[in-house]
Structure formats: structure tokens, C-alpha cells
Amino acid sequence: MSGTSQHRAIGMMSSDSIPLLAQAHAYDIQSVRFRYQSNESPASRWILDNISFHVQEGEVLGVVGPNGSGKTSLLKVLARLMTPQQGYISLFGQDLSAKAQREVACVVGVVPQDSQMLFPFTVAESVLMGRFPHQSRDRWISSGFGWESREDMAIAEQAMMTMDIVHLAHRSVTDLSGGERQRTVIARALAQTPKVLLLDEPTAFLDLQHQVEICSVLRRLRDEGGLTVVLVSHDLNLVSQYCDRILLLDRGQIVRLGGPGEVIEPEVLESVYRCRVLVDRHPSSGLPRITLPGRPLQSSH
Amino acid sequence: MMVHVIRENFLKQLSTTVEPGSCTEILSHEPGRMVSQGSILTNSRWMAILGVLSLTAIAVGLICLHFGAQPIAYGEVLRVLGDMASDRDRTEGTSDIARTILLQVRLPRILLGFLVGCSLASVGVALQALLRNPLADPYVLGVSSGAALGTAVGILFGVGTTFLAETALPACGFVGGLVALAVIYRMATTYGQLPIHSLLLTGVILNAIFSALIMFITSILDPNRSYGMMAWLMGTLTAPTYGSLVGLMIYLSIGLFLLFSQMRVLNILALGEESARTLGIDTEQAKRSLFVLSALVTGAVVSVSGMIGFIGMVVPHAVRLVIGADHRLLLPASALVGGTFLMGADTVARTLIAPTEIPVGIITALAGGPFFVYILLWRKDRLA
Question: Cβ–Cβ of B9/A225 closer than 8 Å?
């Protein structure tokens, strides 16, 4: 595999050749096509239509696009929850479709769009479940009776501290607010000690404070631990402020892929979202910021 | 490899060092302390709860041996059991009649009650996690009636009269239960999870179809056998021979052992199918094997004891409220409570209007039905 030899070559270089790291790919997606198959309509349209791009190792990639543009499907394909009908995806140089689900789970953490909590697990139990893929090596014993090791607990606890939910440890997940639940799910994904974190609308239920907090945490994990983040969101401003690159999807195809300045452009957004938006600069970061046109200015007396 | 270096860094950042000396410098608290303060299941808590439940089961078993049409003093009960355990002839202070009643009638019946209760509660736990619905139960879902139909067909074709009776009828029940679960599996995969209304509808429909077929079989049997079948269908624990107990044990030990080996998988499956997959479980395979195991255990139990309802729903639900949702504790604890509960219920059934016996299924339905209504009416928030 050419990807593997590439990693090996990088590994042999000294640590001051970090800029080369930008060449390493967490994901290689090559002409992927995906559609939902059903008996009624075998020729349904492609949800992902011939998509090719790379996710660079250690970047925060935002995926945006209108409803039904294929954002969530793309994330599920990357998480190996769904298999594309055509194309090839490699994860750190290895064929994703050839990997066992558990192998993927050791490398990729997923925060799904909505996580229903039906059973009264405590927050701590729920976060500890993130250790499952790492524990189930000898399947028969540990899938039935295994206990978490001290290392598992330390990792889970660290994940809980990162997400600021330690004080909820003993609470039942069925009694949490939407935001607390979301942070629990993210903590569980972090407890998987993933190299890649895939998040689907992670800030949808969160108030401003926690939106900012989660995005800063994601960036911090990227900066300090080299975590690769793929983030699906409707919030263009959030994506523009926190993501290194943005992937704009429309009807299953890539419209733009690049830095916030290249993607958050009025003409591009207007053609995709079919409505007028204003784009200016964020006062402190200087990154593009969008504003809805709103109603016409009322004349002041 | 660079990937490795990055991963190491990430691990370092996420996990605290476990060495006692260094951890005090890195963190002001002992690693794992916060998550272990009563918020997660620990080995000692597991042992303590299951120990108490086991002792309770034994105590209730002794009380059940005492009660009957003819109460037998506890001292005598213990002496007879001691004799049996040490393979002695009877000692002073025990009578032949008491010995026969205890060893030939009450003990096998109580053991059967315990096994059946254990099995139904365990299957209930598994089905609830699999279908992500806290009301799932082999009886409500129609798995029990599927198993009953299988057994009835077996009886119709004379399997019950051959030397194979003790081992072949549970297999017939298994096949019947499997048919029912195949339908439920289809429903569950179509809808992703089984919401409460479709769960109940599936159960109503399956129960209606299977009962109709069972009634048909009952009506073409000769009156003597059909009466026996009616009594069996209502759920009775008639004193079994030790031979049939062993036959049942063979099925149950395989089924329950494999079910218990999946306790942590049940935990993960309870999070939902998609989350379970992102945590590395091959959900299709896990679900299929758990459904087959559930059918095996239900089939074996129903072929011996008929349709005893609601234990699989009430017991796990009540146990979960008290000890939490972790299946490593929930499954064995529910099994013990289910076994204990059915032993007790059966003792009530055979002593309430002694010498006439009530089918124990009536007792469990009278206890479980109102509970079911209560959950449906007042705990809707807990349901999907």
C-alpha cells in the first residue's frame, strides 16, 4: 500500500520535519458514490455522487451544505456505518472496507446526530463504554464479565474532565438535559482514544457557552494530541471560526473545499443555499462571518 | 511511525499515568477515583448484590419447601436435605412421607420454578436491550406462544410419548420461538428499533395467530389430552421427574451460558444500533445470535412449564430501577430475582386453595398485568 510506505517514510524523519505531516492523510476518499437501496425504488438518486477528497491528519474539517446535501451520509460512510457502492476509502493508508468494525472503533470516534438514551446508565458507565473496542480482544471472557482496568477508568475520567461532566458522573443519562447528554456522548467518543473524531451537529443542543467550549476543546485536542476532526454542522459561522478547512456539499457533490476564506463567499453560498447572505470579517479573528440579510433597516427618527 | 507518536501524545494527554508517585504530580486526585464513587459497577458491589440475592433465593426456597398442602417443619426439611446431600438413609426425626413429599414432589417443582423464572427474566433482559424497549417480554411479544405452538405440534405428532419426550419437546419449542422471533427481528430491523406501539401490535398479532393454531390442535386432540394441554398452556409447574429436569437443564445451561457471555455486548447494544457499531460491535451478528439464544431458552422453558407471563418484563424492570442498567449486574440479578419470584408465586399457587392448585401463570399475570398497565399509563416518559 503506497499510503503505508508514505507514513513509514515520514516516521523515519526527524521530528523537526513536522510540516511534512500536512501531507499525511487520515482519510483518502476516491470517487465514492453512495445511495440508499430500497426494494421499491432501486434506481434512487446518488446521495453521494462521485466524491473525492482527503482529510489531512490533524486538521479540523468542517462539512457544510443544505439539508439533504449528503453531509450525514458522508459522515456515516467515513465511520463505516454504511458502505459506498462505488469508490474507495482508506483510513491512514489502509482500506476501510477491509477493516473489522472493532478495528475502526479503536481509531475513529463518532458522535451521532441524536443519541437517544432509553436505559438508566449512569454518565460514568456510559463514558466507560467508550473503552469497549479496546477491551474486547479476548472476546469470550471480556464480552461477558470483564471489568474496566484502572487505565480504562483514568482515560474515561480524563474524557469526562475534558467535557466538564465529572460532576454528573453518578447521574442517570435519562435525566440529563440535551447539552449534558451531548457532552456525555462526546466524552464517550473521546474515551475511545480515537485518532479521528467524526461529529454530526455536535453543537445543535448546546447553549453558547458550551458551543464555544466544545469547539475550543476540539481544537485543543487537535493542537496537543494531533486529533483529526471532521465536523458536520449547519452553523456556517461556527465552522468558519473553528475549522481549518471547509467542505461545502450540495446534492451529493463537492462544491468547494478549502480554507474558510475560499468557501465562505457570498456568490458560492448564494448559489448553494439559494438565498442572499452577507459576508464580512469577524472583528477579532478576521475570518469570514456571514449574516442573514434580515429585514430592511427601519428608519430611525 | 509518526502516526504512533501522535497517538502516544494523545493517549498521554487523555490518560493519566497510573504510577502512584507520578499521578499526584499530574493530577491532584487518584486516577479513577471520581468514576468509581458509586457511579459505576465495581467488582465488590457486584459480589455483594449477587451474594444477597443468592442467599435470599436459598431462604425463599426453604420457605417454599416448608409450605404445601401439608406443612413440613423447617428442622425436618433441613434434615432431609442434609440426608440427601450426604447420600444417607433417613435419620432420626424425619418420616418417610415427608421425605417422599420433599424429594419427589416439592424439591423438583421448586427447582423447576427457579429455573423457569431465571430463564424468563434473563430472556426479558436480553430482549429489552435488543429491541431497546423496556417492555419487551417473551410472553407479550408472542415468543412464548410461538414456542407453545411448536411444543403443541410436537405433542400432536406424538413426540411427547416417545423416549425422546424430555429432550425433543424443548427443541420443538425452540423452533416455534424462533419463528416468532424471526418475525420480530424483521420488524425491528425495518424500524431500527421497535417503538412501543409496534411492539405491542406485533405481540397481539403473533399471539392471536399462534393461539388460534394451538386451539385448533387442542380441539382435534382427544378430550383427556386436550385437558392436559389446556392446563399446561395456562402455565403450570407440575412436579417434574428428575429426568426431565436434566433434559431442561441441558438446553438452559447452553442457552443461558451463551446469553451470559454477552452481558457487555448487551450494554453496548442498549445504546442503540448505530452507537453500538461505532463502538465496534458487528450488530447484525450479535443480534442474530442473541435472538436465537432467546428463542432457545424460551422454547425449552415453555415446553415444560407452558406460558408463564410477565416475569420477563416485570422482574428486569424492577431490578433495573434499583440497581441500574449495567447488564453485567442486571442480567444475573434479574435471573436470581426471577427465579426467586417464580418459586414464591408457585408456592402461593399450590397452597392458596389447597388441595386445588391454581396455574401459576394466573398468579404471575395477576401480579404483572397491573404493573404493565401502570408503566403504560404513568411511565410513558420512560418508553420510546
Answer: yes
